[in-house]
């Protein structure tokens, strides 16, 4: 099949699957779907932005492979990640008489992937689906691991299910048509992996960020592959987030709160996580879990990626209240992930008093957006 591909296995016994990473993989989607599908009917779920770039080519490939593709084009953006949008997917599946063996393909970013996976999880109590992530956040994070779902007005991803894909197919060439703002935002998830699990990878990011920002192919392939390897290892050890998998939430406790406070419009996910990486490291320092040097290194690499490190809400009560709606809250306590050092973290609840003491020391400023504010697209 042409250019050399990289594979990362997600080992989950009967639910195991491969992540395939290959530039130009989009040209093989019809053949790959044919090898995986049990029926001719396949659903292609995407959004308007991605459809404009890629849908006609994918539909054509499916037809050439003898499949019967059904396109489901959704409105873009986190604000549309709702039960109402999932219902639109289910309406098409029912109208087109999809069966339990019919296959869905998520062609898009994390929002499309999460909603497609959730629809696949609940339609006829579960049908197979594959992930074809087109954004960096989706390629290195949300497409892997089987978390699916939608947002509630009180919090992000409060409604969902675990439903593993049959495969994850990553074409790094998708990133070339990604708006700069989306590309930069995705780097927050990449940086997260170095902090939580791999000191050497973090050092690589410190040294290579200029090449990464220029989308140099070898650097892009390296960060995508290593991020997927770390995610796969964590998921294999803890599929349903009962223990170790919670380390993947580093940066997300404050990050999700900031997303919610902005109505899922002022900050996109990676931008909010980037702020969360720095603030949660500083909060770890405040609690005595790590030293200032660790915080400074995290802040430096976040800034080098072009991401903001500034708190976007001046209100303690608003931020703390938004954190209370996080799905990781246990018995009313906010459970945080705190760096001990680069490559090591701990999972410990935090009290409101401790958070309030730290909050007084934090400066607030700016919109929190990265310096790249290009029009959002794919």
From TrEMBL:
Location, primary (coarse class): cytoplasm
Domain 3-dehydroquinate synthase C-terminal: 186-329
Stretches assigned to coiled coil: none
Cofactors that this protein relies on: Co(2+); Zn(2+); NAD(+)
The keyword Acetylation belongs to this UniProt entry's keyword annotation: no
EC number: 4.2.3.4
Localization in the cell: Cytoplasm
CDD domains referenced in this protein's UniProt entry, alphabetically: DHQS
Protein family according to the UniProt entry: Belongs to the sugar phosphate cyclases superfamily. Dehydroquinate synthase family.
Protein name: 3-dehydroquinate synthase
Native source species: Nitrospira lenta
Lineage: Bacteria, Pseudomonadati, Nitrospirota, Nitrospiria, Nitrospirales
Gene designation: aroB
């Amino acid at each position: 099949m042409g250019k050399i591909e990289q594979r990362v296995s997600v080992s989950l016994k009967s639910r195991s699957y491969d992540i395939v990473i290959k530039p130009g993989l989009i040209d093989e989607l019809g053949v790959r779907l044919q090898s995986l599908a049990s029926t001719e009917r396949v659903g292609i779920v995407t959004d308007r932005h991605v459809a404009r770039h890629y849908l006609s080519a994918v539909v054509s490939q499916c037809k050439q492979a003898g499949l019967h593709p059904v396109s489901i084009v959704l409105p873009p953006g986190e604000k549309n990640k709702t039960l109402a949008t999932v219902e639109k997917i289910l309406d098409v599946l029912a109208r087109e008489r999809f069966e339990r063996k019919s296959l869905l393909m998520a062609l898009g970013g994390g929002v499309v992937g999460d909603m497609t996976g959730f629809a696949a999880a609940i339609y006829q109590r579960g049908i197979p689906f594959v992930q074809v992530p087109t954004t960096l956040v989706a390629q290195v994070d949300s497409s892997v691991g089987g978390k699916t779902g939608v947002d509630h007005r009180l919090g992000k991803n409060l409604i969902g299910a675990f439903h593993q894909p049959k495969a994850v197919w990553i074409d790094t060439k998708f990133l070339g048509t990604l708006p700069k703002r989306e590309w930069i935002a995705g780097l927050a998830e990449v940086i997260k992996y170095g902090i939580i699990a791999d000191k050497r990878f973090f050092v690589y990011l410190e040294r290579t960020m200029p090449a990464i920002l220029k989308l140099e192919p070898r650097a892009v392939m390296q960060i995508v592959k290593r991020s997927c390897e770390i995610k796969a290892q964590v998921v294999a050890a803890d599929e349903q987030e009962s223990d170790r998998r919670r380390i993947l939430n580093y940066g997300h406790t404050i990050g999700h709160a900031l997303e919610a406070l902005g109505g899922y419009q002022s900050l996109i996910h990676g931008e909010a996580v980037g702020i969360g990486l720095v603030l949660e490291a500083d909060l770890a320092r405040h609690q005595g879990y790590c030293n200032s040097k660790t915080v400074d290194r995290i802040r430096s690499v976040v800034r080098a990626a072009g991401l903001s490190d500034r708190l976007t809400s001046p209100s303690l009560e608003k931020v703390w209240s938004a954190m209370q709606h996080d799905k990781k809250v246990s018995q009313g306590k906010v459970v945080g992930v705190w760096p001990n050092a680069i490559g090591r973290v701990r999972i410990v609840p935090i009290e409101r008093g401790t958070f309030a003491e730290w909050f007084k020391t934090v400066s607030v400023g700016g919109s929190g957006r990265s310096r790249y504010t290009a029009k959002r697209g794919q």
